[in-house]
C-alpha cells in the first residue's frame, strides 16, 4: 500500500492527508490537517436527569464550519441492576434530545440507509449569523453518539457529512497505553 501511495504521490495524485482526532477517548474521527479541536463541559437533560458531559468541538481554522460531538452511556433498570439500554431505547433518547429543536426535518444521507442512525437538518442564529446544521445520532447498545455539523454555508455542511464515515471506536488497550505514556511525560 505504501508503494502505491508513493507512486501516486510521485505522479501528482496525492491522497489527501488526514489527521486523527479523539472524541472523549472513546471514538476517533479523521479530518483534514487544517482542523483543530477544543472541548467544553455542557449540561444535558435526558429523561428528567441532568448529565454533565464533555462536548468535543472540531473546527476548521478560518471558517465557521464546526463539528460538535459527545456520547452518552444509557442504562435502564434491569431485574437486579442497571443494564445497557437496547438500541431502540437509545434511539428514543436521541429523539427526546432532538425534540427541543424547532423547525427541523429529517435529513437522508444520499445513497446510505442504516437503522442505527438518524439525521435531522435545521437552521439557527448565533453571533448575528444564520447557521445551517445537520445533527446525527448513532445508536448502539447502551450508547448514543451525537454529532452536530454546522456552518454558515449549507454545501460545506453537506460535504462534511462524509467525515461521519471515518468515525471508529477506539481500542481500550491503546487508550490505556496512550494515557500511561502521557502520564510519564508529566
Amino acid at each position: 500500500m505504501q508503494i502505491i501511495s508513493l507512486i501516486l504521490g510521485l505522479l501528482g495524485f496525492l491522497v489527501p492527508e488526514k489527521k486523527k482526532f479523539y472524541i472523549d477517548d472513546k471514538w476517533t474521527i479523521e479530518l483534514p490537517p487544517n482542523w483543530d479541536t477544543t472541548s467544553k463541559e455542557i449540561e444535558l437533560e435526558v429523561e428528567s436527569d441532568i448529565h454533565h458531559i464533555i462536548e468535543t468541538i472540531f473546527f476548521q481554522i478560518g471558517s465557521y464550519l464546526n463539528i460538535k460531538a459527545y456520547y452518552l452511556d444509557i442504562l435502564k433498570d434491569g431485574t437486579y441492576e442497571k443494564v445497557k439500554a437496547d438500541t431502540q431505547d437509545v434511539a428514543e433518547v436521541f429523539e427526546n434530545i432532538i425534540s427541543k429543536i424547532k423547525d427541523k426535518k429529517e435529513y437522508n444521507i444520499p445513497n446510505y440507509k442504516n437503522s442505527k442512525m438518524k439525521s435531522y437538518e435545521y437552521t439557527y442564529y448565533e453571533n448575528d449569523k444564520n447557521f445551517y446544521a445537520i445533527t446525527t445520532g448513532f445508536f448502539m447498545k447502551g450508547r448514543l453518539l451525537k454529532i452536530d455539523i454546522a456552518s454558515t454555508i449549507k454545501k460545506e455542511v453537506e460535504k462534511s457529512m462524509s467525515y461521519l464515515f471515518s468515525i471508529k471506536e477506539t481500542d481500550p488497550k491503546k487508550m490505556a497505553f496512550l494515557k500511561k505514556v502521557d502520564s510519564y511525560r508529566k
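The helical segments are 2-10, 87-98, 154-160, 172-185. Residues 74 and 141 are 8 Å apart (CA to CA).
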